[in-house]
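User: Hi! I'm a student and our assignment asks us to look at how structure tokens line up with a sequence. Could you show me two examples?

Assistant: Happy to help. In each example below, the sequence comes first and the structure tokens follow. Example one:
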Amino acid sequence: MKKAMFETGRSSVKLPMPAYISGCGCIAGKKESEGPLAEAIDCLSSDNTFGTDNWDAAESKLQKEAVRITLEKSGVDKREIRYLFAGDLLGQSIASSFGLLDFEIPHFGLYGACSTCGESLSLGSMTVGTGLASKVMCVTSSHFASAEKEFRFPLEYGAQRPISSTWTVTGSGAFLLTADNGPKTLAKISEITTGRIIDMGVKDSLNMGCAMAPAAADTIRQHMEDFGRKPGDYDAIITGDLGKVGSQALVDLLKEKDIDVTDKHLDCGMIIYDLENQDVGSGGSGCGCAAVTLASHILPRIKSGEWNRVLFLPTGALLSKTSFNEGQAVPGIAHAVVLEHVE
């Protein structure tokens, strides 16, 4: 069978034209304001309702503000945006649909769990890199309280959290992708590796790092194979929210495949919080974890040239309230994009 022109290996594509990240914005809550990235986050609030009446509305407000900040920083009018690629963790992605309604931009609703930042950047880059749009916006969010309500226990329950558990980030990040390289360009995307759903039978919803680690390992292995690369070809290989426990599992799984990422691997869930001084268990999680860390920590380092090439792969646990209550395992997925410095 003849391959499509831009297919690379089994799971990757090399875009005919790069998509440039020409702007970004992020907003986060109280826990994040106490963490190491606080000074780099565009907007912080000590009120985790963000002036709304409930947690779900608060998450919608997060997305609305992240897009507003991005448009303001980039100097782009909302009418210039061809498509919105957006998703969240709530049922039927209501944080996105309610939060982004007023922008009146053609909307693709996505669900990749906590990998949604990688999924939206992948699809947005494909759209821009193949000439289907000149400007698109990618946005995702999560909220600690709405996620606990959706997937675990009501906060009032006061459940004890094991060391393997992670703390859902209250935050949102938005990214403007354009076809043109300009003075505000932060990085470019020209290579993408799409993850497969991997299910290793992990059923513990309080150990999602280990549920997602096999998917991250599979995407990294496939990416290296598709592009004929090794970990040393990257300044950093950054996963979304495996946390401390899941990150160790990832390193061990890749060593079994003779791939050593020990000196290159970072995890957004371990960057956004201070694991020693904040009560967050294994680290951060949620769609907002990778998105806020990308906007506040990763892109500035690529823009400055401190990092020239980064493999960025947000990770997602594909469970729902229904699947969990039925005793099913937690499948994982990880979508990777290559972020590169632009002179």
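Example two works the same way, sequence first and then tokens:
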Amino acid sequence: MIKETLVGIFIAVVIFLSARGLNVLPIILMLALSTLLFFMLRSRGGSPISTGSRETATSHKIEFTNIGGQDAAKRELMEALDFLRFREKIQSLGIRPLKGILLTGPPGTGKTMMAKAAATYTDSVFVSASGSEFVEMYVGVGASRVRELFRKARMIAKKENKDSAIVFIDEIDVVGGKRGGGQGHQEYDQTLNQLLTEMDGMQTTVNPMVLVVAATNRIDILDSALLRPGRFDRQIRVDLPDKDGRLSILQIQTQNKPLADDVDLEIIARESFGFSGAELESLCNEAAIQALREDRERLELRHFRDAVDKVLMGEKTGKKPSAEELERVAVHEVGHAIAMEIANSGSVAHITIAPRGQALGFVRQVPEIDSYLYTKDQLEKQIRVALAGSCAEGLTYSERSTGANGDIAQASQLARTLVMSGLSSLKFVDPETLQQEVLDQEVRKILQEQNELTYQMLLPYQAALREFALVLVEKETVSGERFRSWIAEVRPIVTEAIA
């Protein structure tokens, strides 16, 4: 309304001056240039009256009950937020309210959702921005946007009669990296300096109070000045969920989905080891899409299992290997499966030679429990599982193929873990002083030893291995139960051959 009034007044003045015989062209040109300059400064974030078009207040009606699999992180965050909720109580004890909370952890674990839930929990205004939005080629733009972000948070809080606001900065490592890194550009340092200044200058005794919540998966590159007490007072780890956490997330994500009677979410939680919350959400969505493709009214267990494969390996490709290649891939995968079953009975979920992503086939393994520590024996078993596909090809065809490239890289990494953990013949080593030549020699030694053990382990299965590979070629996918039935059938023959 104000804009329209000003435009009307300007037009009336121009008409009046023109009627008096004055030249109004310079006035029009001057106004046009001033308007153009105003909008240029505003788009770059340099205008002192910028409304912060990029850093927007968003809806945050997410509660902690909507977030599964992060019980420990939620408890720690809620405890920190209680300093904001019960200010009178903490002031009586002389406690200084927190200024910042840093959420760290892998991508997709729910850091942004937890920040939004924090705003709901404390009944605060929620203003968000990404670290990448503060940095451009123009020096000073980022610092201006940081000032505008905090000003806007206070302004919106006053407008909505809130006594607190949460400023959420995602990907803070973009602007919070260690200074003096030789970027050759002062914009990064100036933006970080402004953020530090804002956090130092925040008053914790006035309304509205501002709390900074930031998220990153690269805490190792953050500047130490940003992490000190008085800025980010709490660092909360939001990690990948364990089995119970995955089950909790699956229960939340399937609340609005009709499930068939054969769906056991505990099975899906066990088979989705290592999945983040975002991946579990994608898993449930992909299962629903698969049911839609088949015109099913309910989601079945096989839809979820197919979705697990898709999230892990990607969509099925249009690759059409020849009959000889299919048989070789089947032999390779059966070799992996045998080694898995010997290393950890009951761990094979299914075997398939349906190409997905870059893989022509794969065996999905399901650990009995989530493990975070490994012994030497466990790591050596994993190396043998990785090498078993190539060894099975060697036993069957007397030569190996390039299909084991990824397996050898995985086995090599496991061997390096053995060395760096002091579990090899080198005993304890210092990673900083260990010569690369010595490391490579020890890794080759471990791989050669485990390759020979893998070869000897598969030798009694040589005849039966190719037979089951032909079954896999015919079926394309074989369940873990069917594979274990076959193992039980051939075990007496193998035992006799070993004896």
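Here is something you could point out in your write-up. The longest strand covers residues 209-216.
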